[in-house]
Amino acid sequence: MAEDKIDCKYFQSKIQDFLADELSPEERIKFLKHKEVCQKCFKLLVDAEPSQIFSRLREQRMPSTFWQGFLPAIKEGVEREGVIKRWLPLPTGFRRLAVLAAGFLLIFSIFLWLYFAPKFKPAQRPQELAKLSIEVPAKMKGKMANLRAKYPTIELLENRGARLYNFLLKDDVEVVMIFDKNID
Amino acid sequence: MDSRFKGKDRDSQKEIWHLIHQSQRGDEEAFEKLIRLRREPIYWLAFQMLADEDEAKEIAQLAFIKLWKVLKKFKEVESFDSWLRRLVTNLCLDELRKRKKERKAISLNMVAEISSLKEPAAEEVLYFKELQRIFNQIANKLAPKQRAAFVLIDINGLSTAEVSKIMSCSSSTVRSHLMLARRFLRQQIENHYPEYVKDIKREK
Asked: What is the fold of B1-105?
């Protein structure tokens, strides 16, 4: 199709191809141009596919009065965007998203640190607890009764080579003491 | 191709490119001219999608505000028009999804009311008003993507390939949306407006 225009016969032969989107881009443009100017061919197209009647909607125009206030609203929007950009000079697109995500993570980390740091205490070693809270009796042999009076929860476990004392202090700290069986 | 969008000849394309070029240098008057040249197709594209004059106008304005922000990126007129169409289509699809989510689909009475705004006397304009009213009533029941495919291809005259870029999906998916939209519209016309179509054929 070297010519700019197509005739009615050609248009009618291509209606089904047009509806199936099988025309080349050039043919398609010529077909659409012919459809806009030839009422007879347009009717045939609507006969073949009634929904094509709505393609006429593209011919609508708005009265000029409709556009009153259109440009000022865009100007206002552009200026508003400019103000936001001046006060918040963030990069655009994914970079903006990355900056915002990093900022959020930083704030969240500070919050976590402030919230949990005062509650966190490092675990105290048993030896230090022993020093702080009780005096371990020097001679254990034959003194279990005395010990039980002082530490009601005390338990004594004996194995072949070791002796184990397990008891609770006043502040519910559990103490486990293991001695060689030969040490008294 | 939609003459409102593409311009009738190469001169209008040259003019568009010239205006883009001047706007890129910060010329606000050129940008205003650019808006005047493209506001009509942008508005109608949004209106066919949303069937709401105010929302369509707002989306057209939003599109031009975004255009001003990214204007310097455009290197070709073609990418400019595609970008505008893509932007408006996506804004409309978002709006339609939001409506569906909020279950605030416009009632048929409301559509009729909106369409009867601004009363001109010309017979042709009345014909378009009526056609638009019928389209709004029927297309309101279409899925957003089916409606977008029909509006872009059958009303705006774009090809399937162009629409697949705008909607970011394959050509076969676009074709499938279009076929479903056409089938639904055809059924609705045949069931509810058979006389109307015959009358139009007779009158035209």
From this structure: Rna Polymerase Sigma Factor; Chain: A (1.10.1740)
Answer yes or no: do A57 and B132 touch at CB < 8 A.
Answer: yes
Alpha helices (H) along B51-122: 53-70, 77-102, 108-115
Q: Which residues contact A91 (CB under 8 A, 6 or more apart)?
A: A99
Domain chopping of chain B, boundaries: 1-105
How confident is residue B113, by pLDDT bands cut at 50, 70 and 90? very low
CB-CB neighbours of B129 under 10 Å:
17
Select from B135, B150, B197 the Cβ nearest to the Cβ of A50: B197
User: Residue A62: its chain B contacts at CB < 8 A?
Assistant: 40, 43
User: Model confidence at B142, in pLDDT bands (50, 70, 90)?
Assistant: very high
Residue from B65, B163, B170, B185 to probe the interface with A (highest A Cβ count within 10 Å) = B65
- What are the extents of the domains in chain A? 8-59, 70-105, 126-180
Task: Give the Cα separation of A11 and A13 in Å (integer).
Answer: 5
Residues from chain B that touch A39, judged by Cβ atoms under 8 A, are: 204
Residue stretches of chain A with pLDDT short of 70: 1-4, 83-93, 119-143, 184
pLDDT for the residue A94:
72
ipTM tops 0.90: no
Residue with more model confidence, A165 or B153 = B153
Residues of chain B with C-beta less than 8 angstroms from the C-beta of A44: none
Distance between CA atoms of B141 and B111, rounded to whole angstroms? 12
Q: Which of A25, A50, A65 sits opposite B159 (nearest CB)?
A: A25
Helix (H) or strand (E) run with residue A107 in it: helix A93-116
Nearest to A51 among B3, B159, B182 (CB): B182
Single out the residue of B186, B91, B198 nearest to residue B135, CA to CA.
B186
What is the Cα–Cα distance from A153 to B120, expressed in whole angstroms?
99
